[in-house]
Amino acid sequence: MNIDEFDFELPDRLIAQTPLKDRTASKLLLLDRESFNIQHDTFSNIEQYFAHGDVLVINDTRVLPARLYGEKADTKAKIEILLLNELENNEWEVLVKPAKKVKVGTEILFGDGLLRAKCVNVGDEGKRTLSFIYEGIFLEVLEQLGEMPLPPYIKQQLDEPDRYQTVYAKESGSAAAPTAGLHFTNHLLEKLTKKGVQIVTVTLHVGLGTFRPVTSDLIEEHTMHHEYYELSEKSAHVLNKAKQDGKKIIAVGTTSTRVLETVAQKFNGKFKETSGWSNIFIYPPYEFQAIDGLITNFHLPKSTLLMLISAFVNRETIIHAYEEAIKNNYRFFSFGDAMFILPTREGELNGSNI
Fold first, then answer.
1. pTM for this entry
2. Structure confidence by residue, pLDDT tens digits, 119-142
3. CA torsion 285→238→354→305, rounded to 10°?
4. Under CATH, which number does the domain 3-63+160-353 receive?
5. How far apart, in whole angstroms, are the C-alpha atoms of residue 235 and residue 309?
6. DSSP classification of residue 157
7. Which of 81, 154, 169, 198 is most buried, with most CB under 10 Å away?
């Protein structure tokens, strides 16, 4: 498929620059996966579209203050890095700007030497492997020196950095937030639990694979980068039981989806405790094995995220839904509004019949 098939015109005014004061106040576009009908609601009402026994899958990754500003030890040239993946022995895969100034052996100082790094490998597309030297606990040093790595289309600084974290963020390791989860509050999760919805956690540390743009004309030629994921034995048990009992599995975001589909592919449609590195690239046509419904934000044109949700429904319907969202002034991207691609059920898909 050609990349231009996943393009659309988006007015700049609809790119959300700041989060809403109330996480649950976002607009919610409801898309029936079977009939393709569209309805509009508010995220705070999402509970009514769940049934007792449904499983909600959330990604509990926590965003690191992964953007660091330093200088070369010899020339004092300014260097910016973005932490991507933790490797071994205090080494990290990072993105560097300007990359041409950082070669093997280059030393970089952060915070007047509170944190030091040495380049030990040069990759492509601005990637480097840095070995870090510090005293104490690395995450505490990061909290002191690093900044929240907001996407480039967000031009304003956050007054509250935790608004770029989900309320259930736990496992540190991401370079970007799993943004579909930003709409949930603890109160809303409690309401879902009281209704009988089972909440399951997975972990996928969001790195370059999720937000790297597609540069090839044919999407089949695009290669995703690997991102680390985990699925626990407890989560696997709940998911398998839900499948066995005919309950619906609803993923929060494309990151949770990619974990579930990676594991389902690995174990022939089953779920087992596992961890590893996934570079799964989901685009039409694709046969989903794991999920029945999907809660997601509105994504960038020509992005792998837009391709994933197009595979879950179909490209034409998703592009039409995006046109409807634009017409109704939905806010787009990380701090924007949400879409719920509803699982197919018997009878009408609305709160009174679920």
1. 0.91
2. 999 998 899 999 999 999 999 999
3. -30
4. 3.40.1780.10
5. 23
6. P
7. 81
